[in-house]
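Usage

Read records sequentially. Each one opens with the input sequence:
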Amino acid sequence: MRAVRGAVTVDADTPAAIDAAVRELLEQLTDANAIDSRDIVSAIFSATPDLRSRNPATSARTLGWTDVPLMGVAEFETDGMLARCVRVMLHVSVADGRRLQAVYLGGAACLRPDLASFAEA
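and closes with the structure output:
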């Protein structure tokens, strides 16, 4: 089993905006790593305190991830934290030893500048 992380910023605190951002993040993570949803063991989502209208795990359910154990948690607030950000850690069953690529989208690219080659603007 391997884990891969990603993050995305959300335009507004609305269910539709959170759904769209989570969809984009999960699609890019699974596409970049050739991950089939049947190979996802579990996913942990976190959201900054300014995102209250939808749990990102609920957004993942709308993508058909109904058999994947999902958990959503709240980030604790810190000075200077990135606003309206959803993070995810996917645990994936991978038979080969391949390296999985993290995906950081939008404003979340600043979270891991060491992975800038994997970030999307």
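Summary fields computed downstream for this record:
- The first helix runs from residue 15 to 32.
- DSSP finds two helices and five strands in the chain.
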